[in-house]
């Protein structure tokens, strides 16, 4: 049965591609995974490929663009990419904090709280890169109803070692450059999801996308959407729209069980499949070492993953996973014996005053091997680092040798942010602490946000593990950038870390806030002072002194001479 | 205290330098001089820049009239008319025709006999029944009219060819349908499937090929007026916001689905449909090819009585055109692809709609675009626009842009006059001056070339609207004069009161002393 549906899917794909010479291909994908704490991590992915398409060369921006004809590819997004000649772009809008210690790695790396946008664009003289970056973020702000327009120069950096392109970069006359910006205080909500759904060929009316029910999605413990545009020289321009959400199925279950179903999680089931998709696949991670029941019968089940081909289920699909032996779900009381991530990172800003503070970062390497990582910190200009106070310690012992290189971009007051990008070596199974003193600047009166007393959100820092190469062990061929550390490489004695980047949580910094009625106070105070001085002088000069005779003339003469 | 005593005391005090009356008065006067001198400086430093606009020049524009001219060379072939007499007759009739059109501009048309190549247009009056236009040439078939009617008919035809109803002062429905003039339009073509899950949907279209065949010639000709950017996409779910009417016509077993005239006005479901990309600020002309879902076929447009009409298309004024495509009835649920032959009909409608939306005048009835017996089987007749039509459109658009920029500038002048707190910077003044200069150019160039007139008028319109929307003009609206005064009061009141009090006291003393001197 599995084989026949697969064959059917392939034949449908062949018919669509060969009969109409379709240069565009759309596929949709949903994966569900039960987490250790009873929650369910879900990821929707909608991928459109424009075959053999090439991103627009920035040099051609001066010329008229060709007529753009799209079938499945979202037109609005396509036109934005064309008009700003963007080769690669990643936009994520997330709400909540991804809990790495309890949930492990997310399926998609971009889980920074708030908005994050980074793009690779070819440099050009016709229209400058920064002008196009500005246009891109404004256009995306308009498209997704998000305040991405405020990702301006004060938030934009160009990290030199991290955020490498995920696809290929075409060879243009000038090199490609990176622009990266985060907006931690941005929140994702229905107004962002609606334009997101409009970019899909089947909208939310059929196929996997019909499960995207805003009422349920925005009730989830963590949720976020992402748009990735990459160019693959063998495939073409690839756009992937994805939505990740972590649902607390125990909270919403009457019997406190962790059983879930589509109806339960999303309030909907898939009634019709999206005819525009060449593949719509649902993957469910099956539980290990526990009795479970899954219904309906999956199209295939391999390596602990149950697969459903949506087009094969014509009468409606409502996948459900049950733990029949379990009464109420018992929350795990202890952390997992083996940490779920290779690295753990925490970052705090300490210091009671509004002018000084200390940034403390501790990075734990859970691997039995030494690992090399990049730590990327983007700080708004008003939090300045005292770089000379930087201390690297392991178990309270100073270990300056762990810092192998450091790239640092100085901030410009009221302008560019700081970029702090050290490369660190992490000893096996140990925690490296990095501390540094910071000074908080005074902001200008007009620079404060409307709710100034709340403080400023600082963007999350990013930990980027680097691939380590050992000269003695050069044969580790099957490690790709996205695959997890496989048991095979582990058995060779040298384990490659998971190269997925890890985000820290946001920080809130309390800056000195003025009394906002200050300008008026200043005006009134200085006016009073001037009036006082004037009055004294004026009175002294124009007062008419009159001699009052109360005593002999001598006294009067004395009074006058004084 | 007796008077003598006081006098002698005062004498003693006046011995002290600054207590003498004259010095005190001088101190007081100098204070006042400083204050009075500082006043203009204060006024200057706190007031806003308000350059004076060339008001009289702007108002003079309102009464100006555009004058266009056209020379027509007339030849008479194979007819025993007195050419001179005929041309005089036609000319007189044409003047009446043009006057009756109530154009917004003065149109000076001159007819010449014999014809030569230096004329703007040429007319040949022939003894045949076939009338047609080719480029700037009109071949008029006089045989179908009685000889006495010929001058009148020809004048009417020429009037129709040379003017566009867009330029008429009379109220026209067409005016509301035609897009406002813009140098660049975005043409957004959408293939909308009502519901792809129902099967038998259009999965793609040969759009580029269809555009090349049906639209490109027109677009090329219109490039004198506008530039075009083209984009297209396909959608698989485009539900209607209402349910079409169900009706059974005759003894047919297949029910019809009808769109009533009211439903046509709400046909565009902008909440659910994405019909253009919105990547630029250029105005968009939308062209929608709507494929109803398999259960809603055939979908027809109903007339006011509720009977289905033969038409499958309609224009949404200033927005675009819609064509409803009902695929042939089949029982299969196989999806299909719209090839060029299937798109020929919808795209020829799109072409007509495009021309209507851009205000291209139609040829008068009875006039063809080619000789009747010419090789005419390529099926693309009527796509070419003659220079008669284009020139008429150019004149109308030039008039529109001229009128528009004049109105904008009048509004600026009025607004600046009304709102005292509105700053007028140098850039606004420059833009207004530039627009006025461009308008002057329009009036001088209109006589020779409508094309040149349009390009100047366009320039004027751009400058005028840039001046109107200049962000600097709004800067101080929220900081009114009362506010300035309120801020300065804590300074002015305590300083002003002693100054005035001292001045008054001094004056009173002076008057008292004068009176004392007179009585003494």
Proportion in helices of chain B: 40-55%
Per the principal axes of the C-alpha atoms, what is the gross shape of chain B? elongated
Number of strands of chain B: 15
Structural class of chain A: alpha+beta
InterPro entries (chain A): PIG-T
Signal peptide (chain A): 1-21
Biased composition (Low complexity) (chain A): 468-483
Transmembrane segments (chain A): 520-541
Produce the secondary structure layout.
The complex is a heterodimer of chains A (562) and B (520).
Chain A (H helix, E strand, L loop, with lengths): L1 H19 L3 E11 L4 E13 L16 E2 L5 H9 L2 E10 L4 H4 L10 E9 L6 H16 L11 E2 L18 E8 L6 H9 L15 H4 L4 E11 L3 E13 H4 L7 E2 H5 L12 E7 L7 E3 L4 E3 L2 E5 L10 E3 L20 E8 L5 E10 L5 E9 L3 E12 L2 E2 L4 E7 L8 E9 L3 E11 L15 E3 L3 E5 L20 H5 L10 E2 L3 E3 L8 H25 L10 H9 L1
Parallel strand pairs in A: 1-11
Antiparallel strand pairs in A: 1-2, 2-9, 4-5, 4-8, 5-7, 6-7, 8-9, 10-15, 11-14, 12-15, 13-14, 16-17, 17-23, 18-22, 18-25, 19-20, 19-23, 21-22, 24-27, 25-26
Helix pairs in contact in A: 2-4
Chain B lengths: L2 H12 L6 H26 L8 H9 L3 E10 L6 H18 L5 E7 L8 E6 L5 E3 L2 E5 L8 H13 L10 H5 L6 E10 L8 E4 L1 H8 L1 H7 L4 E9 L9 E3 L8 E4 L1 H5 L18 E8 L7 E3 L11 E4 L3 E5 L11 E3 L1 H18 L29 H32 L7 H20 L4 H19 L12 H39 L1
Parallel strand pairs in B: 1-2, 1-3, 3-5, 6-8, 6-11, 7-15, 10-12, 11-14
Antiparallel strand pairs in B: 4-5, 9-10, 13-14
Helix pairs in contact in B: 2-14, 3-11, 4-5, 7-10, 11-12, 11-13, 12-13
Give an overview of the whole structure.
The complex is a heterodimer of chains A (562) and B (520). Chain A has 562 residues and is an alpha+beta fold. Among the domains of chain A are: 32-251, no CATH class; 343-444 and 451-471 and 492-509, Immunoglobulin-like (Sandwich), CATH 2.60.40. Helix content of chain A is 19%, strand content 33%. Chain A contains 11 helices and 27 strands. Chain A has helices at residues 2-20, 75-83, 100-103, 129-144, 190-198, 214-217, 249-252, 262-266, 487-491, 518-542, 553-561, and strands at residues 24-34, 39-51, 68-69, 86-95, 114-122, 156-157, 176-183, 222-232, 236-248, 260-261, 279-285, 293-295, 300-302, 305-309, 320-322, 343-350, 356-365, 371-379, 383-394, 397-398, 403-409, 418-426, 430-440, 456-458, 462-466, 502-503, 507-509. Chain A has an 11-stranded mixed sheet with strand order 6-7-5-4-8-9-2-1-11-14-13. The longest helix of chain A is centred in the last third of the chain and has 25 residues, at 518-542. Mean pLDDT of chain A is 86; it is low at 1-22 and 471-493. With 520 residues, chain B is α/β, with parallel strands linked by helices. Chain B has helices at 3-14, 21-46, 55-63, 83-100, 150-162, 173-177, 207-214, 216-222, 261-265, 340-357, 387-418, 426-445, 450-468, 481-519; strands at residues 67-76, 106-112, 121-126, 132-134, 137-141, 184-193, 202-205, 227-235, 245-247, 256-259, 284-291, 299-301, 313-316, 320-324, 336-338. Chain B has a 5-stranded mixed sheet with strand order 2-1-3-5-4, covered by helices on one side. A 5-stranded mixed sheet of chain B has the order 8-6-11-14-13, with helices on one face. Strand 3 (68-69) of chain A pairs parallel with strand 8 (227-235) of chain B.
């Amino acid at each position: 049965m599995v084989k026949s549906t697969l064959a059917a899917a392939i034949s449908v794909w062949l018919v669509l591609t060969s009969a109409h010479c379709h240069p565009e291909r759309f596929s949709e994908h949903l994966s569900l995974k039960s987490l250790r704490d009873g929650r369910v991590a879900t990821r929707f992915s909608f991928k459109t490929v424009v075959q053999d398409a090439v991103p627009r060369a920035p040099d051609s921006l001066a010329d008229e663009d060709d007529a753009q004809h799209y079938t499945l590819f979202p037109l609005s997004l396509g036109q934005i990419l064309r008009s700003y000649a963007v080769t690669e772009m990643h936009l994520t809008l997330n709400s909540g904090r991804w809990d790495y210690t309890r949930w492990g790695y997310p399926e998609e790396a971009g889980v920074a709280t708030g908005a994050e946008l980074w793009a690779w664009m070819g440099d050009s003289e016709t229209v400058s890169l920064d002008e196009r970056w500005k246009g891109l973020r404004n256009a995306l702000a308009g498209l997704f109803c998000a305040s991405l327009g405020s990702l301006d120069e004060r938030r934009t950096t160009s990290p030199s070692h991290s955020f490498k392109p995920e696809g290929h970069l075409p060879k243009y006359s000038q090199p490609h450059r990176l622009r990266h910006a985060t907006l931690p205080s941005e929140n994702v909500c229905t107004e962002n999801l609606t334009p997101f759904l409009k970019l899909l060929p089947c909208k939310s009316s059929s196929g996997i996308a019909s499960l995207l029910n805003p009422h349920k999605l925005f009730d989830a413990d963590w949720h976020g959407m992402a748009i990735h545009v990459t160019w693959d020289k063998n495939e073409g321009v690839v756009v992937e729209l994805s939505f990740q959400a972590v649902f607390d199925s125990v909270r919403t279950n009457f019997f406190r069980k962790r059983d879930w179903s589509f109806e339960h999680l999303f309030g909907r089931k898939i009634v019709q499949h999206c005819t525009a998709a060449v593949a719509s696949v649902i993957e469910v991670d099956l539980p290990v070492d526990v009795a479970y029941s899954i219904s309906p019968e999956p199209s295939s089940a391999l390596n602990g993953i149950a697969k459903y081909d949506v087009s094969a289920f014509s009468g409606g699909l409502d996948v459900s996973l049950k733990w029949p032996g379990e009464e109420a779900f018992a929350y795990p009381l202890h952390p997992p014996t083996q940490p779920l991530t290779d690295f753990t990172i925490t970052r705090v800003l300490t210091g009671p005053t509004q002018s000084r503070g200390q940034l403390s970062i501790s990075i734990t390497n859970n691997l039995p091997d030494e690992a090399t990582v990049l730590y990327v910190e983007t700080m708004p200009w008003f939090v300045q680092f005292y770089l000379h106070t930087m201390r690297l310690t392991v178990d309270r012992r100073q270990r300056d040798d762990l810092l192998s290189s450091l790239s640092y971009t100085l901030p410009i007051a009221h302008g560019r942010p700081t970029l702090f990008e050290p490369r660190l070596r992490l000893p096996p199974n140990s925690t490296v602490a990095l501390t540094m003193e910071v000074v908080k600047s005074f902001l200008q009166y007009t620079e404060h946000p409307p709710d100034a007393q709340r403080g400023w959100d600082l963007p999350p820092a990013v930990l980027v593990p680097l691939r380590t190469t050992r000269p003695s062990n050069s044969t580790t061929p099957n490690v790709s950038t996205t695959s997890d550390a496989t048991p095979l490489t582990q058995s060779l004695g040298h384990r490659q870390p998971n190269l997925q980047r890890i985000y820290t949580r946001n920080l809130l910094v309390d800056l000195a806030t003025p009394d906002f009625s200050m300008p008026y106070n200043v005006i009134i105070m200085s006016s009073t002072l001037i009036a006082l001085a004037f009055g004294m002088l004026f009175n002294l000069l124009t007062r008419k002194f009159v001699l009052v005779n109360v005593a002999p003339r001598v006294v009067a003469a004395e009074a006058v001479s004084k | 205290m007796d008077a003598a005593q006081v006098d002698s005391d005062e004498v003693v005090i006046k011995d002290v330098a600054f207590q003498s009356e004259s010095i005190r008065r001088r101190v007081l006067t100098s204070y006042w001089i400083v204050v009075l001198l500082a006043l203009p400086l204060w006024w200057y430093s706190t007031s806003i820049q308000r350059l004076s606009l060339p008001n009289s020049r702007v108002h003079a524009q309102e009464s100006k009239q555009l004058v266009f001219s056209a020379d027509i060379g007339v030849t008479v072939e194979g007819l025993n008319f007195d050419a001179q007499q005929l041309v005089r007759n036609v000319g007189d009739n044409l003047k009446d025709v043009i006057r009756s059109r109530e154009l917004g501009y003065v149109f000076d048309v001159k007819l010449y006999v014999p014809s030569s190549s230096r004329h703007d247009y040429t007319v040949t009056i022939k003894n045949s029944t076939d009338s047609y236009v080719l480029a700037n040439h009109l071949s008029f078939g006089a045989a179908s009219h009685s000889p006495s009617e010929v001058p009148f008919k020809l004048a009417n035809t020429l009037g129709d060819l040379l003017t566009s109803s867009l330029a008429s002062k009379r109220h026209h429905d067409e005016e509301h349908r035609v897009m406002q003039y813009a140098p660049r339009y975005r043409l957004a073509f959408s293939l909308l499937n009502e519901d792809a899950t129902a099967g038998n949907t259009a999965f793609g279209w040969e759009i580029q090929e269809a555009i090349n065949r049906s639209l490109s010639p027109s677009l090329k000709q219109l490039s004198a007026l506008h530039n075009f950017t083209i984009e297209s996409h396909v959608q698989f779910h485009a539900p209607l916001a209402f349910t079409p009417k169900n009706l059974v016509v005759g003894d047919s077993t297949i029910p019809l689905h009808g769109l009533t005239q009211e439903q046509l006005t709400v046909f565009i479901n902008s909440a659910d449909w994405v019909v253009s990309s919105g990547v630029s600020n250029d105005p968009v002309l939308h062209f929608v090819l709507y494929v109803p879902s398999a259960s809603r076929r055939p979908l027809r447009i109903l007339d006011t009585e509720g009977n289905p009409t033969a038409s499958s298309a309609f224009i949404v004024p200033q927005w675009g055109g819609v064509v409803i495509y009902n695929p042939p009835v089949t029982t299969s649920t196989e999806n299909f692809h719209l090839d060029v032959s299937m798109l020929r009909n919808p795209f020829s409608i799109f072409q007509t709609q495009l021309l209507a939306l851009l205000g291209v005048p139609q040829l008068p009835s009875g006039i063809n675009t080619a000789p009747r017996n010419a090789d005419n089987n390529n099926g693309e007749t009527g796509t070419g626009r003659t220079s008669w039509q284009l020139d008429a459109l150019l004149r109308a658009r030039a008039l529109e842009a001229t009128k528009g920029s004049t109105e904008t500038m009048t509004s600026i002048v009025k607004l600046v006059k009304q709102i005292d707190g509105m700053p007028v910077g140098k850039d606004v003044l420059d833009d207004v001056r530039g627009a006025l200069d461009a308008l002057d150019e329009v009036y001088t160039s209109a006589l020779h070339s409508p094309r040149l007139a349009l390009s100047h008028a366009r320039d004027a319109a751009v400058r005028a609207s840039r001046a109107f929307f200049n962000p600097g003009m709004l800067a101080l609206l929220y900081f009114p004069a009362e506010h300035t005064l309120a801020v300065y009061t804590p300074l002015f009141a305590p300083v002003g009161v002693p100054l005035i009090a001292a001045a008054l006291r001094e004056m009173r003393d002076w008057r008292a002393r004068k009176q004392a001197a007179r009585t003494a």
